[in-house]
Design goal:
- By secondary structure, the chain is an all-alpha fold.
- 77% of the residues lie in helices and 0% in strands.
- It has one domain.
- The longest helix is centred in the C-terminal third of the chain and has 34 residues.
Length: 311
């Protein structure tokens, strides 16, 4: 097993900041959904984030890809990483709490392990990862509520939609590694959002009607937050943390997001989650910790370092 990088104080602070930013995005999306439809909300998200990132690319004088195959890859990445999951999760948030959405969103890491194992020979599932994945699945089932599998209603469908969005995120990871490796992260993110905007803007216009900018102040602020800060800014911060901490440590951000979303949902929208949601998150967190491996490594070291009793 590859050793985890040791996290510096700066890496820890930026990782926590990323978790706070993404955790608050669930509330901002829900606020915007009070006035605009789900497809319109994601059209705003991808379009304004795209504009912000291309400004960054221009300011940093990065070359823009000219190969048509790369732009097709951008389109595919945009659909898998933005259009499908953003759309499913925005629709799902109409019927379930923001905190529960964030908990189910944590399943992205679980499906990411499975998707990587299916498509890449160097990402096989070890016995340790298999245990973590199984615990993760139990966590998702518990968070949804086992009783909801008996009586399937709109709330149940919304939760399934959120989970389906995490599967799309996982497939996007495979797509990005296969088709977009080697590109500068800023260019890859801007290109991906361009591909997704080419889909979301006309789709929202057809389904929801003309996109209006005449919105309430709360809606405008919410869109500005989740598009500029929680999408464009967060992508830039994500790659900074990835460079400092490594992909294994970066998975820790998954454990920061739900508590932030749960607290904000409770304070701002008076949301109250069922206890099974917290139990599900605990199982998910345990599964992710086992997949990560550092806890088991620490326990082994303590076992080895423990002095042997002498008679």
């Amino acid at each position: 097993m590859t050793a985890q990088k040791t996290l510096s104080g700066r890496a820890w602070s930026e990782l926590l900041l990323l978790g706070l930013i993404w955790g608050a995005s669930f509330l901002s999306i829900r606020i915007a959904l009070d006035e605009i439809a789900p497809l319109t909300s994601i059209a705003h998200r991808t379009f304004w984030a795209m504009c912000a990132l291309w400004l960054v690319v221009w300011a940093m004088r990065m070359p823009v890809p000219r190969n048509p195959r790369i732009w097709v890859a951008f389109l595919g990445m945009g659909v898998l990483n933005n259009v499908i999951p953003f759309g499913l999760m925005a629709w799902g948030q109409l019927y379930i709490e923001t905190g529960l959405t964030s908990i189910l969103n944590a399943a992205t890491a679980i499906f990411g392990v499975i998707a990587a194992a299916l498509f890449f020979a160097d990402e096989r599932i070890s016995a340790r990862k298999a245990v973590g994945v199984v615990l993760g699945f139990f966590g998702v089932a518990t968070a949804i509520g086992l009783e909801n599998f008996k009586s399937f209603d709109l709330r149940s469908l919304a939760q399934v939609a959120i989970v389906a969005g995490t599967v799309s995120y996982a497939l996007a990871g495979v797509w990005g590694r296969h088709f977009l490796s080697g590109l500068r992260p800023q260019v890859a993110a801007a290109g991906m959002l361009t591909g997704s905007s080419l889909v979301t803007v006309p789709l929202a216009w057809v389904v929801d009607g003309p996109i209006s900018l005449n919105l309430h102040t709360d809606t405008v602020l919410a869109i500005a937050y989740y598009a500029i800060i929680a999408t464009a800014g967060a992508y830039l911060l994500y790659y900074r943390v990835l460079a400092m901490a490594g992909s294994g440590n970066l998975m820790l951000v998954t454990l920061v997001i739900p508590p932030v979303a749960i607290i904000l949902g409770s304070i701002v929208r008076d949301e109250v989650l069922n206890p099974n949601a917290f139990a599900g998150f605990a199982l998910l967190a345990l599964g992710l910790a086992i997949i990560d491996g550092r806890i088991l490594t620490l326990l082994r070291r303590r076992s080895v370092d423990r002095p042997t009793p002498r008679g």
